[in-house]
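Throughout this chapter, every protein is written as a compact record of paired, labelled lines. The reader may check this reading against the record printed directly beneath this paragraph:
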Amino acid sequence: MEAHAGDRLLMHGRTVGQHDRVAEIVEVLGDGGAPPFRLRFPDGHESLMSPGPDSVVQHIEAPKGRPPQ
């Protein structure tokens, strides 16, 4: 799993009735884009996480003419 600051992490619900959660990756603390990640959730809550197999990184492309962060 490789991520960059600004990407989103989608965490699928693990049990029936549990909703998927999405968080912004604020900082990548592992080498080469690997976990752990510092995440910010829509409610402002921040967390440090090493995501499991039920998570997917959604890469956000940088606007044209601007290098990725």
